[in-house]
Amino acid sequence: MQLNNENTVVRIQVQKALFAIIVLSSVGILYTTNIEPYSLKYLGLSNLGIIFIFISAYLIFYFYHLVVKTSYLFFSDDGLKIIIRFYPLKPINPKKSAYEIPKNHFYKFSFKKTFLREEVTIYQKIGTNISKYPPFSLKGLKKEQKAKLFLALKKYQQEENS
Q: Is 139 exposed, middle or buried (0-12, 13-18, 19+ CB in 10 A)?
């Protein structure tokens, strides 16, 4: 099975770009036209107030995706290995990571959900040693994709000896 959220990532990146263009265009229009008397009369806001609202909304949208660690994710369990590739949607130098784990070495996974984040941590067992990989975010996945990912990971999870 293969799974990726490329469409969601592209949609979010396009939304960021369009939102930036709309905000910059609006700021340009507010500064170059004499619209302030009308905005004061009908909205009760000055040009500066409107600009502040637009820029604040853009920054909230932009930083939300940074805080929740929205990421591109590729998962494949075709073949002899489980392959997981991901990178966060941050603007400067996003670290691209890839895990390739032989199916017989996959030990377990853990899921951690907080108010803003959803992360999965993968464990690999080689002999008696258990390695823990850094977590990756599920925030860019749809509900159905998360369910498929969890089913696939549970299929390869080894029973823990208590």
A: buried
DSSP codes, 40-96: HHHTS--HHHHHHHHHHHHHHHHHHHHHTT-EEEEEE--TTEEEEEEEE--SS-PPP
Cα–Cα dist 21/38, whole Å: 23
Model pTM?
A: 0.81
> Which of helix, strand or coil describes residue 3?
strand
Contact 75, 152 (CB under 8 A): yes
pLDDT at 160: 61
In this structure, are residues 146 and 98 in contact, taking their beta carbons and an 8 Å threshold?
A: no
Mean pLDDT score, 11-34: 92
* pLDDT of 162 higher than 70: no
Amino acid at 118: E
Q: Are 140 and 71 in contact (CB under 8 A)?
A: yes
Give 122-140 as a 3 state SS string. Answer: EEEEECCEEEECCCEECCC
Determine the Cα–Cα distance for residues 27 and 47; give it in Å rounded to an integer.
8
